[in-house]
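Dear colleagues,

As part of the handover before I leave the project, I'm documenting each prediction I ran so the next person doesn't have to rerun anything. This entry is a single chain, and its sequence is reproduced below.
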Amino acid sequence: MSVKSSKTELDAAIAAIEKSLAEVHFESRILLHKAVRSINGQNHQLLRGNEELKQGNEDLKRQIEELKLRNDELKKEVQVLCQKASNKQIQEDWESLQRFKTLLDVPDEDPSPEVDLDYCQKTLEKAFRKGSPNVRSSSSFSRMTLNALEEDEVYNRWMSNSHSSLFVISGRTKPESHDGHNTCSWLSMASIDVAEKLRADGSFTLFYSCHPKLRADDIIPFQAPLSMLIYQALTHRPELLRYENQHLQSLIRQWQKESHDREKLTLMIKTLRECLASATVNPQKPMYIILDRMDLCDGTKALKRHFLRQLLSLVTDDSLNLKLMLVLDSTLWEGLDDLFDDLLDDLRYDAKDRLLGKLGWHQTEQTPRLSSPEWV
């Protein structure tokens, strides 16, 4: 083969390669253009999708804000409705309580003198006022104070007992220590001071005085203090009447129809016990009942004995956490010491501490050992 023919073949090969390269280059440009156009299209779609997402996000934010505002409006509407329902329920509870007040035949006056601590205190201040022309000014008489009571061992045992218990305090009042026109007891201030202290401490405390005025011209039927104590217990939790209405009405009608005082008293104590048990909010904290001048309650010696036994049954009932305090003037309750001893003998050995007494705490004509408040 000659050199010339070899060169011709080489040129042809080079030409073929260049043609192939040109074709590859052309096809590559076409493919690249298509790819760029596709990428641009996808990018455009992504940008448009991003804008749509942004718009959708803004719409969602707006909807969320609208829902929040609507939720707040609904909350306010619910609160208003709940308040209206609560007010309606409170009003209905109050109306039920007033119907029970009528059924129990307790005084319409609210508060009535028998349960008004301020009223009873002012009565005692007036009865034992220093400088009264009918009080012997040359003598000083012992005056009951909370300090004196709190220094008494028996009272402190009653207050510190971890279980229910009954505390009886009794004594005679010297007629010369007060205006002769009244029949108040020098021990009554103890009941008021204790009730005030307990209420100031937030304790569940029921109070009743059988001698709220200067003179006790009328004997008090035992139904009066018990009815008022039942009513006071219900005032602490009037919502109880939503569930106990029929049952309590049935009990009340039973003892209202009862003609025998002994059975009537027993049923009333049962009603009081159930009201106290239902009104209990915290079983760990004791409830307190302060009953002043129970000696003025009407009845035979046998009925008074039964009354005291029934009250004692409240503190020997383990379902209640109750501290009961009775203040009596022993001048009008003959044989109280013997009755107290009989009740104590009747108790089980392990229940002796359920009945505590400070009997014979008579007023003395002497300078008080402890400072006393000046009576206005």
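Strands lie at 165-171, 205-209, 287-292, 322-329, 355-358. The chain has two domains: 8-104, 110-358.

All the best with the project,
I.
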